[in-house]
Amino acid sequence: MWRPPANHRPLSNSTPPRPSPPPWTVPAQKDNLCTNVAVFDPRGRILLVQRARYDYWMPQKWEIPGGSAERSDESILHGAARELWEETQLVATGVRRVIAENQGPDGGYAFRDEIRGVRFCRFAFEVEGESCEGVILDPDEYQAYLWVGEDEVRDEKVGEREIPITDGSMRSLILEAIRLKGAGEGWGSVDG
């Protein structure tokens, strides 16, 4: 199980320790793999984060936490846990399931960042966490967060507040995560 250092300080520049990967993992490749993480609170609502207003890619739009895998990530699962920690200060304690994006049972969704000229393949996971309390956002990446239900994602609205999702594929990914959570499908707790 991945954990931040015992003496961690939120949003510090220190790199969290990385556990040894299981022998079946494949090292992540820089600039071509990315991950997103679905986290649910005890009421079954999913965590959405709002991109910073000055972000170059889809500023002020909403998504689930995630980002690029790094060469130092020992696996895509470690990259997912690291991204969740860096962006929200939430600790992933296990992986519940892969969230496939209508591209087969193994997941994976390819897209291109035209600004940087990089092609990515995205893998998404539902994770279990130590706690859903104490979300602290990295202000360089995000400016707000919400716990939302399925209807709010479909409507892209919470009460009178609009919550535009980054794009159709992210919206589909979030709705699939909610569907799978409701269906109770998954692996059970698997250390990443």
UniProtKB/TrEMBL annotation:
CC cofactor: Mg(2+)
Pro residues bias: start-end ranges: 16-25
InterPro entries from the UniProt entry: NUDIX_hydrolase-like_dom_sf, NUDIX_hydrolase_dom
SUPFAM superfamilies for the chain: Nudix
Keyword list, A-Z: Hydrolase
Record domain Nudix hydrolase: where: 30-171
Region (Disordered): 1-28
GO MF term list: hydrolase activity
Domain of life (superkingdom): Eukaryota
Annotated Gene3D superfamilies: Nucleoside Triphosphate Pyrophosphohydrolase (3.90.79.10)
CDD domains the record matches: NUDIX_Hydrolase
Name of protein: NUDIX hydrolase domain-like protein
Annotated source species: Lasiosphaeria ovina
